[in-house]
Specification:
There is one protein chain. The protein is built from 21 helices and 16 strands. It is α/β, with parallel strands linked by helices and 460 residues long. It has four domains: 130 residues, 3-Layer(aba) Sandwich (Rossmann fold); 163 residues, P-loop containing nucleotide triphosphate hydrolases (Rossmann fold, 3-Layer(aba) Sandwich), CATH 3.40.50.300; 70 residues, Helicase, Ruva Protein, domain 3; 49 residues, Orthogonal Bundle (Arc Repressor Mutant, subunit A), CATH 1.10.10. The strands form five sheets. It has a five-stranded parallel beta sheet, with helices on both faces. A five-stranded parallel beta sheet has the order 9-10-13-8-14. β11 and β12 form a beta hairpin. The longest helix has 19 residues. The protein is globular. It starts with a helix and ends in a 12-residue tail after the last helix.
């Protein structure tokens, strides 16, 4: 309570002003009183045109608008603020259960939404989040997305814009292309930057433990539950929940996740009541999620809820002109005080390489090279790049699938090579990536004649 009072005093001292747009007098009065009790100055408008006029004449720290208005809808207010680059977060009030309107508003730039009837505690949370937005892009230390290609510039621009909203974001791209870094940059540049960022690898959780991990459980809920335990949603309360490899969620868990996101409530296993949670969802996967929906492996309603703002992270091979600069920046970061440079041949090799593991693979290659290079010069052999011919099936495999055993061996060999490259030839990690046991991984490498760089044949 004392904190709310001090916050109200802070808003009053700053003259924090809110524009409230609704054509129902009772709602205007109720919400206006609630906002004024928070120490805010409140201006009111009952139509779109009056709202736009006030936005032209006065700077506002927040706009809260109903969707249905006598001369239009709240989207027009949101669009006006976005198109005129006003530094005013705008939230919309939607009819209960009308997620289509809420998602449409988020897509055109709304900060967040509230469903009718408006709960005053949710209103207070929204106001605090909106007024906590940074006035300019934050410096995020070494957390940067490198490259000047059009695709990367587009991704950075989207990240900057969506950071100032509460919309769900789905980041797609190949393994190693920077999806988690993009998610962290969104969180670091938004209103939740000082709150928890909980990253969850959905593909690494056994299906039998999914509900426990996401929602938590009460003491005595099952054998071994000797105390209450929070789940990912409770741990991320007030902050951001990053669902990596979300395509790997089983269908049964997708239903429960959708309800938690829509209702903003979760129920611990063994609990008799739900608890409210306030999290922003960012998801990612290297799969084509829309294709998963078409195949019936991912729920369409959850897809639409997660994919409000899509961001595509480009593959490194699509940014060949950027490779020399990115490689040099990675080298400068890793070398410390040591004087090391790339030879011309090494730089050409990097620029011509396809990088199936993207930036993560580039970092691994340079880290290896720093260990192996001599005389302060990184040569081609120091980076141990995978030979081009080993990254794809041979000509026989490309032109035909017969004989079948040979074709399958080529496909398997390619998958093993890519996993080993992405994990810096750590066979244990590569086995996990492929869903194999270490023993199976070792057997398959021996059967297909795959050796780590520098590994000698027994005869040698």
């Amino acid at each position: 309570m004392a904190r709310d009072v001090s916050m109200a005093d802070s808003y009053q001292a700053k003259g924090t002003r809110v524009l409230l747009v609704d054509d129902e007098p009772d709602i205007l009065e109720l919400l206006g009183m609630a906002l004024e009790r928070m120490g805010l100055l409140v201006d009111k408008a009952e139509t779109v045109q009056v709202a736009l006029k006030k936005l032209k004449e006065q700077r506002y720290d927040l706009c809260l608008t109903d969707m249905r208005l006598p001369d239009g809808d709240g989207l027009q207010v949101v669009q006006y603020i976005t198109q005129h680059n006003l530094d005013t977060p705008c939230a919309v009030i939607t009819a209960h259960g009308n997620m289509e309107n809420a998602i449409a508003a988020l897509k055109v730039g709304a900060f967040d939404y509230l469903a009718k009837p408006v709960a005053l505690d949710q209103l207070r949370v929204l106001v605090k989040s909106a007024l906590n937005l940074p006035q300019q892009d934050m410096a995020n230390g070494d957390k940067v997305l490198l490259g000047q290609s059009p695709a990367m510039q587009k991704a950075r621009d989207l990240i900057s814009r969506v950071a100032r909203s509460e919309a769900s974001v789905h980041v797609s791209g190949e393994s190693g292309s920077g999806k988690e870094l993009a998610a962290r940059l969104i969180a670091l540049s938004g209103a939740r930057r000082e709150k928890p960022f909980i990253a969850v690898n959905c593909g690494a959780i056994p299906s039998t433990l999914m509900e426990n991990e996401f929602f938590g459980y009460k003491k005595g809920a099952f054998t071994g539950a000797d105390k209450d335990r929070d789940g990912f949603f409770q741990a991320a309360h007030g902050g951001t929940l990053f669902l990596d490899e979300v395509a790997d969620l089983p269908l049964a868990m997708q239903v429960k996740l959708l309800r938690a996101i829509q209702e903003k409530k979760v129920r611990k296993i063994g609990a008799t009541s739900e608890e409210a949670v306030d999290v922003r969802i960012i998801s990612a996967t290297h799969y084509d999620l829309a294709e998963r929906v078409r195949q019936g492996e991912f729920r369409q309603d959850l897809y639409f809820r997660l994919n409000v703002i899509p961001i595509q992270m480009p593959a490194l091979r699509e940014m060949r002109d950027d490779v020399p600069k990115i490689a040099q920046q990675v080298l400068d970061k890793l070398r410390g005080e040591t004087e090391v440079r790339f030879s011309e041949a090494a730089m050409r090799a990097l620029q011509n390489y396809n990088f199936p593991g993207n930036v993560r693979e580039l970092e691994n290659a340079i880290e290896r090279a720093l260990t192996l290079c001599q005389g302060g010069v990184v040569e081609v052999q120091d980076m141990m790049l995978m030979p081009v011919e080993s990254m794809r099936p041979d000509k026989t495999a490309i032109t035909g699938k017969y004989p079948l055993p040979d074709y399958l061996d080529q496909v398997e060999k390619q998958a093993l090579h890519e996993a080993l490259q992405q994990t810096n030839f750590n066979r244990t990690e590569a086995a996990k990536l492929l869903g194999l046991t270490f023993r199976t991984m070792r057997y398959r490498m021996e059967r297909l004649g795959i050796k780590a760089p520098g590994e000698m044949d027994d005869a040698d």
